[in-house]
Structures are given as structure tokens and as C-alpha cells.
């Protein structure tokens, strides 16, 4: 009886595996069936091209690969909601002039962290997020460390009317201009690459009036010397953020008593939670 049960179980597993594989052109990708659709995991396979997926796939993990370009136009499933392209070698936001996400109007989360996508004036960004009106989470962090030609193209980001969470490199030239006023849903901001700018000026967040959560922790530098991260946060930085609740400035080991005092003075009536692990105060 046990042998029969084991045989039946093996047959069922084989059917399920074969059925799952059919949802991707690459047999090494793993698929999990959910009530909302299929979750495809192609991470860590070392692939240089993006496989095909049928439209029933709503989540694709393409992280830890060797991709140098975004998926070609039309390649992402039309019902895709979540895509992880982190830890690759992607250099551009477009593929041969075509818009990668032109058919993914339901995308909610896009992770492009730890790539080589520069937000500089030499990169063609026009229309990059044009069809991502429902996108809520965007991660483009750890792409631009030390690159001082970077800037924050608000004319591109303003397409993201539903954006709630943004992770981005705040290197030296990055500014959040007036165009960010239209991102009324943006409440969570995580900044990386702060070591290259040293100081956060007092008008840095003036156009991000709906922020609730701000993470300026220097987690990338935890194992380094004391001389890493931000050195100074100017007074008045977040005083006008009426909804502000949580600030994380942990591991910025250059911040001394003066910078810390500026933060606490501004937030005495606003802040609900302040995180400041391992500051040099």
C-alpha cells in the first residue's frame, strides 16, 4: 500500500512540475500557482536573456542573473504585478529604444536595485514609466554610488501617480524638485549613497510633503570605519512634513552631536519614532 501511495504521489508531483514548467520558456524557472496567478522564480540561474512567460504569471523574480538589458518590449506578461530585476548588470532603462513596460499596466512593484542604471543626463529616460500608473513600489537604489553627474528627473517620475515607496540613490546632485509635488501618494522614502554628499540641506524634502517614513541609514557601510555616511543634517529639514512619523539615521557614524541635535529639535512635535543606532555622539 505504501508503495502504491508513493507511486501515485510521484506521478502527481511530476504532473505538477511539468504543468508549472509550461508557464515559462525556461524549464529551470520554478512556478507556484496561487489564486491570483503564477509566481515565477528564475533567480540565480545566470541567464543572459529573459524567458517568455504566459499572461497568467503575475510575479517574476529575475534577480541574481547576468542580465545587461531590461526585458524586450512585450516580453513581460501583460498581467505582471511584481518584478524583481535586482543584482544584475542592467545599464539602461530602455531596450533598443523600445519601452520595456509598455504592456504591463498592472505592475505594482519594480525592483531594479544593485544594477548600473544611471539617472544622469546621458541616459534616455523619456517615457520609461509612462504606462506604470499603478506602480506603488520602485527600488532603483545601489545603482549610482559616487556618480556625481546624477540627478533626479522629476519629469520622468511624475508619471508614477500611485507611487508610495521609493528607494533611490541620493548622491551629490540629486534633488527632489517641484515635479515631485504631484506624487501625492509617496509616503515612504529610502535614500542610499548618502556618503558622497555628506550634508542634507534644509530644503531637501520640501517637495515631498506627504512623507511618513524616511530611511537615511547607512546600512551599506556597517562594517566600515567610523568615517562613513552623512556628516551633517541641517536644521529645518523635515519640520514642514506634517504627516512625518519615522526617521532612521542609523550607522551614519560621522554624525556628531550637532547634526543629531538638529534632527531632534525639528522633530520634537512630529516624530513618533527615531532610530539612530551607532551614531558617533
From TrEMBL:
Protein name: Uncharacterized protein
InterPro entries: KCNMA1_auxiliary, LRR_dom_sf
Membrane topology: Single-pass membrane protein
Record-linked Gene3D superfamilies: Ribonuclease Inhibitor
Localisation: Cell membrane
GO biological process, alphabetically ordered: monoatomic ion transmembrane transport
Alphabetized UniProt keyword annotations: Cell membrane, Disulfide bond, Ion channel, Ion transport, Membrane, Signal, Transmembrane, Transmembrane helix, Transport
Ranges annotated as spanning the membrane: none
